[in-house]
Every structure is written in C-alpha cells, then in structure tokens.
Amino acid sequence: MILALSxxxxxxxxxxxxxxxxxxxxxxxxxATATLILGLVNFNDVIEIIKIVWDATLAFIGIIILSTVLExxxxxxxxxxxxxxxxxxSGNLLFVNSxxxxxxxxxxxxxxxxxxxxTPILLSKLKMLKLNIKTIISFLLAGGFISDAASLPFEFSxxxxxxxxxxxxxxxxxxxxxxxxxxxLSTISSTFILWIFFKKxxxxxxxxxxxxxxxxxxxxxxxxxxxxxxxxxLLISYFISDIYHIPISFFAFGGAMIFLLISQKIVNTxxxxxxxxxxxxxxxxxxxxxxxxxxxxxxxxYLTVILKEILQINKNLAIIATGxxxxxxxxxxxxxxxxIIMDISLKSIGNxxxxxxxIIGANIGPKxxxxxxxxxxxxxxxxxxxxxxxxxxxxxKFAIIITPIVLLIVLLTLI
Length: 415
What we know:
The protein has 415 residues and is mainly α. The chain is built from 19 helices and no strands. The chain has one domain (22-412). This is Arsenical pump membrane protein.
C-alpha cells in the first residue's frame, strides 16, 4: 500500500510541477511503468485499462482538434464579438453573456477546449475595451470557473465524463437525459453567484464600438457556414452512436479528421495533428494503471466501505457526500485520478445517483484550487503569457467561497 501510494504521489508531483518541461503523459507513463515493474499491476490489468480509456481519450482529442480548426477560421472570435455586442454597452450584461458563452463552449467543445480557446480571445477583447486589470481578472476567473462547472451535459464535455460513462456502460442518451438539468442549474447558479462576487469590479458601461466587426475575423465565410451544419450533424451522430452501440470516438475523432480535411485551405493539417494533445492518451492510461495499483492494494476498498456506510445512513446524504469527497480529492490531487479512484470505489455499490455525483464533484470541485483541473492550469498559464498574473491568493479567495456553494446546488438536482 505504501509503495503504491508513493508512486501515485511522486507521479502527481511530476505532473503538476513538470520539471524541465517533462510532459504530463510522460510522467504518468513513468509512474505506470514503475507500478508494472514492481508487480502492483499485471499485463491483464493493463489490457483491461486500455479497453476502458481508449474511446474516451480518442474522443477527447477529436473534440480538441475540431475546436482548434474552428478557432483558426475565427469561429469563436466571431461568436465572442457577437455576444459582446449583444450586451449593448452594459458591463453587467457583458459579464453574464461571457459566462453563458463559456458554458456553451464547455458543453460542446469540452472544458479544456473552452479554457484553451476562449481565454486568449476573451483577454484580447477585454483589452480592446480598455477595461482595468481588476475587471479583466474578474472576467477571466469567471470564464475559467464556468469552463469546468458547465462541462456536464454530454459525455464529451469532459474527459472525466467519458471515462466514467465508458466504465459504467452509460449510453450517450441516458447520460444526457440525467445530466442536462444539472448542467442548466450549474450555469444559472454559477452566473448568479459569480456576478454577486465580482459585481464591484464590473463597470456599468462599456464602449462596444471599440470592438471590430465580427465578420472581419472570419477567414473563410463558406467554411464558417459549413461549420454550423457540420456541428449539428456531429451532435446527431452522437445519438446515433448510442442507439447502434458505436464507440463515441468513431464520430468525435473521425468527424474531426473529416473537418480537418475540409479546412485544408485555412489550416496547416500537419501542424494541427502534430500539436493535438496526444499526451492525453498516455496521461489517461498511465494514471489509470497507477490508480489500479492502489485498487489492487486495497485503497479503493476502504473508500467503498466509507461510501457504503454513508449510503446505509441516508441515500440523499450519500449523494452529497460522494460529490464532496470527489470534489475535495479533485481539488487536492487533480480531477482525473480522483474520478478513476471514485469510479473503481463505486463499482460494487451500484447506486446510479452516486455515479453522477462523482462526475459533478470531479468537474466542479477541482475549481477550489488552481491545480485541481487541467483547464484551470491552462487558463492561468495563458493569462500569465499575456501579462496577467493571477496570484494563488487571488485565486483561492474567490474559488474557496464559490465552488462549494455551486457544487451543493448542482448535487441537489440528483436528489
């Protein structure tokens, strides 16, 4: 047990610290190799793990590739400008609109896609509007929060969703029907609470005339029109994948490749493929192997016992407890290893609401710390590159208050 925990903690430190540019996938594979060599897992375990994560990771990579191609054509910048102009010069409405945009992008293009794509766009537009630094930080923190809090409605909205749905064999339609209401309430409650928290930093009026014409940012207008049709078709294909039991990655990754070929006039295909987050594959497999080592040593059994005892006391309490255990663990040690540990622990319990509570906890809970999720790390990194340094104190002061409130509200929808 001590050996398995040591490998897990050292790997986690390497992933978060990234010494000498060591990539997250490489760190996870190093830890997984040590776990295998030391006999904490066997090759049969590794094969089982690959069966669990391959669909999730390929689908996630497909969504990121699709998002990148759309971004290159100005799709998201156009939408951001359009949303900003709909505020009609009201700072409060601009704040609300930006959160709603973040919520939609997180739902359809995954939480990391939202952070990776929207952060630089949002930042550049806020600078164009000549807003002060406190206002810019408020908008960025709100946008970063919603990128995870709203990554609930579809399996592909978050890597944690796909892994859990695949692990428990939850179909696309069933997943969506159970999580669409938590998503709506998460967006509404997050918007209201974030506005209350940041309203003193939001100007009453903004000069939207400083923004460029939204049509000017589109590189290929024909491709832009095709994009809307393609996205609608892709969404329908996900429902078809569920009906005919086709892996979701067949459409998510395959669709991204088709769209990449269609877009060759405006993008460098080789560059897009090269810069795709392939490390996510090794990251997912590696972490799952390490966590499986913890399972084989009995750690997840302890967690199962705790969750079962809470369930015996009260079903509703078990739902809330599962969400908060998942959320707190995610905040401390990142949400991907947490959701895997919790999935394994919940396997023998068989309570469906607790499975969804785990997803909600792993998606919203990590916002309590800046290292809880990859999307938060991406947001802070991009902001720093653009000259906006959000300190640990600034982040924690905001996140530690808002996150538990939103998490509790969303978990109540399961009850």
